[in-house]
Specification:
alpha/beta; two-stranded antiparallel ribbon; binds S-adenosyl-L-homocysteine
Length: 341
């Protein structure tokens, strides 16, 4: 990238050089102390390793009728869906290596404007350069997702600025480079069932729905939930993969037990600890990406969960930005209170 600095929420921070600088320093931690408490107390007596069969790709098991199911609980609303759209039919069809072929293909196949497509292409090159956007599937997903539709109209001009933007209710659409980095770290494949906590604008899940048919997302702010539902509804004619995004209004701290386990979990609100219910719902071999840290300063952590034959759970953590802090909207409970201490 042109300069070696990235602006995060007003703070200028140094960015590590080079494509691999962000990924080589992996730190493996056998979780003791606090974590052992819930690993042995919560995870193991739960459904791991043998209890529940892990069926990530069986649409029958996951089928819900269309429409709204209001029966979940008093405070929860779920959107219904089925896996009618197979995103695998989209794999590999969008040119991602050459700007003119990309623009030409997108103009012929979407209703997007050349101005937005060129701005998106430029951002993608920037993030490929910094190492934040890696892997064919992730690059294609980024290039196919119209960020201009997920920002507020007042911010349309800034849709391709490398910054977060307000989306109302105190929430934000995350900086596009952080979205790229978190998606790259999540390493999603078509076989993975993915859960996002913090639907917000819907942009992150829209990206994920280009990679897997099985995307789940939870939002706690009621009007935002409905607005994003309506947006996906409007966009799904042009982007049929959005019909695979299964949405819930509720508190994401408790995950989504009904569809657990999840192969991938991405948390887009900040917290100072790993929520035990989410770790429990993470499948063995699964990856969670979460902004972890005290209020005001978080580090994006990749958490890998392994379970050995004896049922012992190991969590390995890696700070994906190597000590560079970011700032996210707080993870809150239904009373609006932050989960961080
Ligand atoms: N992924 C979003 C980012 C939104 S900002 C995007 O791409 O636009 C973080 C979001 O997390 C906010 O919308 C906030 O309301 C939501 N959030 C905070 N606490 C939550 C909780 N307990 N459960 C679900 N969502 C929560």
């Amino acid at each position: 990238m042109a300069d070696a600095q990235i602006q995060y929420h007003g703070n200028i921070v140094d960015y590590p050089e080079g494509r691999h600088a962000v990924s080589v320093k992996s730190v493996s931690i056998f979780i003791a102390g606090l974590f052992a408490g819930f690993v042995f107390g919560v995870v193991i007596p739960g459904n791991l390793p043998g209890g529940r069969e892990h069926v990530a790709t069986d649409p029958g098991r996951l089928y819900q009728p269309h429409g709204f199911d209001r029966g979940a609980s008093r405070n929860e609303v779920e959107s219904g869906h089925s896996y009618e759209y197979d995103v695998l039919t989209q794999y590999g069809i969008t040119p991602i290596d050459d700007e003119e072929s990309y623009i030409e293909w997108m103009l012929a196949n979407t209703g997007e404007t050349e101005e937005h497509l060129r701005a998106r292409w430029e951002l993608s090159r920037l993030f490929i350069g910094t190492g934040e956007l890696q892997g064919e599937r992730t690059i294609a997903a980024f290039l196919r997702t119209p960020r201009e539709d997920f920002v507020r109209e007042a911010n349309l001009e800034r849709a391709y600025d490398d910054t977060w933007l307000p989306i109302g209710y105190g929430a934000t659409i995350t900086d596009p480079d952080v979205v790229a980095m978190m998606t790259t770290t999540l390493d999603v494949g078509p076989e993975h069932k993915v859960l996002e906590i913090g639907t917000g604008s819907g942009y992150q899940s829209a990206i994920l729905s280009n990679i897997s048919n099985m995307v789940y997302t939870i939002e706690i702010i009621e009007p935002l939930y409905y607005e994003t539902n309506a947006l996906y509804g409007r966009l799904s004619a042009a982007y049929p993969n959005y019909t695979n995004i299964n949405r819930k209004l509720g508190d994401g701290y408790y995950g989504w037990e009904k569809y657990a386990p999840f192969d991938r979990i991405i948390v887009t609100c900040s917290i100072d600890h790993l929520p035990p219910p989410l770790l429990k719902q993470l499948a063995p071999g699964g990856i969670m990406v979460v902004p972890l840290g005290p209020p005001g300063r978080q580090y994006i952590m990749e958490v890998k969960k392994d379970v050995d034959e004896a049922g012992n759970v190991t969590l390995k953590r890696r700070d994906v930005y190597n000590g560079l802090s970011v700032k996210f909207i707080p993870f809150r409970d239904e009373a609006g209170k932050s989960y961080s201490h």
